[in-house]
Amino acid sequence: MLIPYKDDHPLKTVPAVTLLIIAVNFYVYIHLFFFSHSGKDLFAEYGAIPYNIMNHESAQPVNPAVTILFSMFMHNGFLHVIGNMIYLWIFSNSIEDKLGHLRFLLFYLFCGFISVYSYALTVPGSVRPMIGASGAVSGVLGAYILLYPKAKIHTILCLGVYRKKFKSPATILIGLWAGVQLLNGAISLIFKEYNNIAWFAHLGGFLAGLASIKLWAPQAKDED
């Protein structure tokens, strides 16, 4: 297992939006699992359900499009939320630094919406709620590999009791990650029982970030 924990890309600004997103995710997680009556009931009410999204109809208390937004901040367990937030912190602060706070927020939400629709297209009849920030975070990874391919990512290799720290170019680490998502996505199309993880949400978000980041990034002005 490869566990990244920081990068070497220097920042010029405080990543306020990234910190805010992380705080909201942890707040929602704590509220769902420690203060609500039943987190799973709330997943069904406010999670992104592919059937509802594709058919624009729902018995949920909010519009299906709104569930996409809510779903980005809901997680089904501590490992789920901490894993997403580690990746978000490592890679999104540089993207926020590049785009600015408001542009980054809009970019993050855009990737999240595209990721949910990407998954819904592969399982349009599913009534299982989709939750998690993975799709939006995947968009950040797509942006990072295009903007900072040579940035060094500090990573821990875990093989049983063996631990080894090393630095890897973003191209290699994120490229391996994308390959794993693609392989698992292909397997999930063949073996439906393997579809408990929204692999195509990860791929859709990643491609959305990769394809659109240059459009979101502010253009440098020509000097006289």
How would you describe the overall organization of this protein?
The chain is mostly helical. The chain has a single domain, classed as Rhomboid-like fold. It has nine helices and three strands, in the order E-H-H-H-H-H-H-H-E-E-H-H. The chain has helices at 16-35, 39-46, 50-55, 64-71, 78-99, 101-122, 134-147, 170-190, 199-216; strands at residues 2-7, 152-159, 162-169. Strand 2 and strand 3 form a beta hairpin. Helix 7 (134-147) packs across helix 8 and helix 7 (134-147) packs across helix 9. The mean pLDDT is 91.
Biggest pleated sheet: 3 strands, antiparallel
Global Rg: 18 Å
Share of helix, binned: 55-70%
Beta-strand level of the residues, as a percent range? 5-15%
Q: What's the average pLDDT?
A: 91
**CATH class category:** Mainly Alpha
**How would you name the CATH homologous superfamily?**
Rhomboid-like
Overall geometry comes to globular
Structural class: mainly alpha
Overall number of structural domains: 1
Number of E-type strands = 3
Q: Distance between termini?
A: 51 Å
Which regions have little confidence, pLDDT < 50, spanning 5+ residues? none
